[in-house]
Structures are given as C-alpha cells and as structure tokens.
Amino acid sequence: DGDVTASEAEAVLRKGGGEYLAKVQLFDIYRGKQLPEGKKSLAFNLTYIAPDRTLTDKEVLKLRNKIIYLLDEELGAELRS
User: Fold this and answer.
1) Is 7 a residue whose pLDDT tops 80?
2) How far apart, in Å, are the Cα atoms of 24 and each of 34, 46, 81?
3) Which of 60, 66, 74, 77 would bridge with 16, disulfide CB 3.0–4.6 Å?
4) What are phi and psi of 47, to 5 degrees?
5) How far from chain centre, in Å, is Cα 11?
6) Which residues are within 8 A (CB) of 31 and not within 5 positions of it... i.e. 6 or more apart?
C-alpha cells in the first residue's frame, strides 16, 4: 500500500533475510498508471553473504521465499512480475 514506508519494508526484509542479509538498498519507488490507486512499488537490491562459505542457489531462494512470505503477511505486499 502507498502508506507503507521503505523503512517498514526494510525491517521485514532484514527479518526474513536474517544473518545472511548483509546489505539492503532501496533503488526505486514507483507510483503510476501501471499500479492500482493507492499503491506503490518499492525496489530493493539485496546482498546475501555467509562469512564462512558461498551460499548455494537453493539457500538464497529459500531466504527470498521467506522474505516474500513475510512481506505479504506483515505488510500485505505483493511481488510484481
């Protein structure tokens, strides 16, 4: 929703990414005709790091899915495709 702040979204991203989410960077906020009234799109760049090894694609996908789930549950957010 348009009233959700980037800080609120970032807090949920960090919660879902846990210890492996090293960096969260907001790079775009979009409001426009491609979105329903009262909605906005926030785009983040996420950097995952494990200090002792390389994360596998499967591990990163699991973190991503957890983040998407939490964004929906806590903020009512949807992933744009």
Assistant:
1) yes
2) 25, 5, 20
3) 66
4) -120, 120
5) 9
6) 2, 39, 40, 41
Distance CA 56, CA 70 (A): 21
Q: Annotate the chain with three-state secondary structure.
A: CCCCCHHHHHHHHHHHHHHHEEEEEEEEEECCCCCCCCCCEEEEEEEECECCECCCHHHHHHHHHHHHHHHHHHHCCCCCC
* pLDDT the model gives residue 81: 74
Tokens (6 digits) for 51: 């200090």
Q: What is the mean pLDDT of residues 19-28?
A: 96
Structure tokens at 5: 């702040």
Position 58 scores a pLDDT of 97
Residue identified by tokens 């970032």 is 10
